[in-house]
Every structure is written in structure tokens, then in C-alpha cells.
Specification:
By secondary structure, this protein is mainly alpha-helical. 68% of the residues lie in helices and 0% in strands. The longest helix has 32 residues. The two termini are 13 Å apart. Involved in protein export. Participates in an early event of protein translocation.
Length: 82
């Protein structure tokens, strides 16, 4: 059980960092950090919608993995003493 807990902790750390990065890359309404990486110029490009949709999909999938990892760690912690 310790190996599974260790793997989930490492997965939680990696997904937390990636999720933070992906959220900061999203196009903001008024600019923000996404403009630093060229997000402000996307209104004149035709393919920017596809990139934003793919970023949204990847962020949602990563958020689901993050959530399942937290639930798994919680269950391991709860039932560890039994």
C-alpha cells in the first residue's frame, strides 16, 4: 500500500504543477499572464480558437486526474489504520 500512496503523491505533485501552468496559459478576459506568451495577439489569428479549445480540454482532463488522485489519497489515509 505504501507504493501506491507514494505514486499517488508524486502524481499529485506533478499534476498540481502542470495544472497551475495550464491555468496561467489560458486566455484572460482583460489580458493578464496569458498576454506575456502572445495571448493578446490571438484575436487576429484564425487558428487560435483551436489552440484554446485544446488547452481547455487538456486542462479539464488534468483537473480530473488531479481530483481522482486527491480522492484516492484520502481513501488510503482513511482506511490505512484499519
Amino acid at each position: 500500500m505504501q507504493i501506491i500512496e507514494f505514486v499517488l503523491q508524486v502524481l499529485l505533485g506533478i499534476t498540481s504543477l502542470l495544472l497551475t501552468l495550464l491555468i496561467l496559459l489560458h486566455k484572460g478576459r482583460g489580458g493578464g499572464l496569458s498576454d506575456m506568451f502572445g495571448g493578446g495577439m490571438t484575436s487576429s489569428l484564425g487558428s487560435s480558437g483551436l489552440a484554446e479549445r485544446n488547452l481547455n480540454r487538456f486542462t479539464i482532463v488534468l483537473a480530473l486526474v488531479w481530483f481522482v488522485t486527491i480522492v484516492g489519497l484520502g481513501l488510503i489515509t482513511k482506511f490505512q489504520g484499519l
